[in-house]
Amino acid sequence: MNFKRIATSLAVSAVMVNFIPLAIAKEKTVMVGGAAMYPTKNIVENAVKSKDHTTLVAAVKAASLVDTLQGPGPYTVFAPTNAAFGKLPKGTVATLVKPENKQTLTKILTYHVVPGRLTADQLMDGQKLITVEGETLTVKKSGGKVMIVDAKGGAATVTIADVLQSNGVIHVVNQVLMPSS
């Protein structure tokens, strides 16, 4: 027997065994709405799993934005929860998802989307963000919190930051952001 060959073969095998866990390392996930959000999945694939975002998902479908948010992006999405939509005046969501209000719904939803992938550490106090809708959001940082201020002065607090997606990043917010018109 050639002990040198066996030792070399064992050493190579040990390296390969140690390499495998790195090659198939478990994805780092963030829990949102009781579901794991996977960074290898796109915005829509992850959002549909969150029980806290069923209203947002229904609105995205009603506005025909699914294909866009499944596209390559990258996008930064400030994603209001069901509770955030619940803070709107009674009947607002039901009215917005009607086909005749698609343009208004689309305007509101695209106001929550910024081109590019902006993580929380890239959002600076006072920073102006131009949304896909075309208007501006303002970042406010205070006491370790990140807030997004809309055109009407309403402020949404980021409750879960940096939910990485294959085509961008989601920041969960506790208010619906409203454009100026």
From TrEMBL:
Signal peptide from the UniProt entry: none
Any one cellular-component term (Gene Ontology): extracellular space
Residue intervals of the FAS1 domain: 40-177
Gene3D superfamilies, alphabetized: FAS1 domain (2.30.180.10)
Alphabetical list of InterPro entries matching this protein: Adhesion/Biosynth-related, FAS1_dom_sf, FAS1_domain
Protein name in UniProt: Fasciclin domain-containing protein
Organism of this sequence: Bradyrhizobium guangzhouense
